[in-house]
Every structure is written in C-alpha cells, then in structure tokens.
Amino acid sequence: MKFFAFHLMPWDRLPADFAERYDSAWTTIPNSLYDPLHGGKLYNDYLDQLVLADQLGFDGVCVNEHHQNAYGTMPSPNLMASILARQTKRVKIAVVGNALPFYNPPTRVAEEFAMLDCISGGRLIAGLVVGGGPEYFSFSLNPTHARSMYREAFDLVLRCWTEEGPFEHYGQHWKLRYVNPWPRPVQQPHPPIWIPGAGSRETIQFVAERRYAYMGIPYFHLDFFQRNFDMFRDACEKNGYTADPEQLGWLLPIYVAETDAQAWEEYEEHLWYFVRNLLKGLVIFPPGYTSARSIAGIQRGLQQFMTVCQTRDDIERGGYAIVGSPETVREKLQTYIHQLGVGNLLGLFQLGTLPHELACKNMSLFAEQVMPKLRAIGQI
C-alpha cells in the first residue's frame, strides 16, 4: 500500500456570500477576489506541507493543473514540482497531471517532465490528462477535439521518451519537422504514468489497454468508485491480464485529530467552505467533451457527487471524507481500501480554508498513528 499527500492549493478567502452571489468558482470568477500577497503566503505554506510529507514518511506527493479558478490555484504544477524536486529527498513526485490538449506543441510536456525526472533523480510520476471541462472554456478550445488531441499528444510524448531523435511527426493536430527533445528522463523507458478519471469509459479502456494506472477523481460516493474500479478491472481482464492494485488510486479528503469530536470541530467549517464554494461549477462538461455513453454514466454519478451532501451524516455514510480519531480513520480506511481493492491512497490533508497549522497536525497524526498500522496490514 502506498500513501500520497495530494494538494489542490485552494483559495481560502472567498467572501462569505460567495455561494449566493456567484455562479461558479471556475472560469468566470472575478480575479479581483485574488490577493497576490496572500497568494504568495499560501503557495509557501502549501509547499511546506508537501515538504513535510517527505519528512513524515509518505511515499509521494501530488500536484495538479487547473486554470482560472479558486478551487486549485496551480496553473503550472510543473513549477511546484520543480521546487519539490529540490526540497525533498525521497518521495515520489506525482504531477497529476499536465492537460495535453492545452500544450502547443505537447512536446513541451515531454521536455518539462524529463527535466523534473532528472532534477529529482528519477522520482517523477507522470500524469497525462485530458483536462477538466471548465478549462475548455478558459482556453476557448473546441471540446469535440479533446479526445483526438489527447490521443495524438499522448503518443507523441511517449515517442519523445522512447525513440531516438530527431524524428518527424505529422498528425491531425500537430505537424513537427524536427522532434528531438533534450533532456530525456532518468527512468527508462519512461516515468510511471498515472491517468485520472471520473468514470469515462474511453479513459478506463485506454488506461487498461496500455497497462497504466487509473486514479479515481474524488468527491463521489463510495459506490461510484466501486463501479469505476470494477469497470477498470474488467477492462484489464479483457486485455488479457489481471489488474494490479497499484494500478488503482483512491483520492479523498482525510482529517485526523485526537478524538472524533475534536476532528469534526476543527474540520467541519473548512469542509463545507470547500463543498459549497470551491466545488461550485467543477462538474461542467461542454458538448462533445466525451461520448454520449460516458456522459450518461457521469450524469448518473453526479447524483452521488459531494455537493448533494447537506449534513455530516451524508459525508460519513457516503465515504466522501474520512474524519475522526486515528483509530476511527484507520478502521474506516482499512475497510474501504479492502472493499475498493486499491493500492494507492491519495489523501487531501489540506482542504478549503483549513489553516496551515491544522493541515500539518493532520498529516503528522496520519503519518504517525494511521499510516504505519495500515502498512503493517500489508496488501489489504
């Protein structure tokens, strides 16, 4: 079992009446709400939390890419990963990921990921993603091209890492006379590849076919994860092999305090800030972004999305977040990890407005009192 600290780097100062005044935390949210001086403090606090994960014994840290939003103020995860490559010594650095259709040409991703792998001494995990629905509005990019651009860019990045250059590339979306990336990654033939998904059949089949790792996008009911992970295992069987648990990752908010009551007292207001403000507008799928069959499944899943939760009981019953004492968190995680059959746990230990000091305490308690006992269980 591997444990990762995942960070969104959220904006924590939306006005109290944000949910009533604004339609979304994405795309059209006024950037006058952003205070650069406070933003600088947040970036440094958040980086310190990920460096702490290295010191506490986590297996890895995760950063990701989002644009024009308050949910995750990290338009360039590679910048953050480059700092972490220097300031950490041991953890894997998972960039989950770079949204390939937004890079022109996508060989830029192959170059920057290779730089990160070199600087970190071969600790990069490469996330290669389609990009979120709202971001196709932010980039004014035709969403009907999303999948074909992604497939072409994906294969081009792979060629950059595995074929000697220079070579030519003439595809549907990019035509490049000279492809000859310097540097090349330390890990051969290429860094491990993770691909996140929210239930798209195309994504699940693609990941299974290529034998990469599938990371479940969070904030859904446990039943939604179960269906998607079972679908992935079935897809692997159809491709002639049995899925390894390390090909599956479960991402979710986690908060640990000394007692169950103290955990909820310290955490609850920050969780609801996240649910009611930062998730607003996240699940927008522009026309053509994915297939009709997949969008039908995703829409059914949205009935179990975290924004439908109204009470603490809703959160706990659906397993949307695991909150409590070390013993409570350990028992719930042991049960759910076994049920879902995943080999990677990706925890959001800072969420919404959760202050730096509480985020660090949360990570420390998890690392000292939860993680070792889950490791001791072995492949649960």
From TrEMBL:
Superkingdom of source: Bacteria
A Pfam family hit: Bac_luciferase
Enzyme Commission code: 1.14.13.-
Signal peptide coordinates: none
High-level lineage: Bacteria, Pseudomonadati, Planctomycetota, Planctomycetia, Pirellulales
PANTHER family reported for this sequence: BLR5498 PROTEIN, LUCIFERASE-LIKE MONOOXYGENASE
The protein, known as: 3,6-diketocamphane 1,6 monooxygenase
GO CC terms, sorted: cytosol
Keyword entries, A-Z: Monooxygenase, Oxidoreductase
Domain Luciferase-like residues, every copy: 42-342
Organism: Blastopirellula retiformator
Single GO term (MF): oxidoreductase activity, acting on paired donors, with incorporation or reduction of molecular oxygen
Glycoprotein among keywords: no
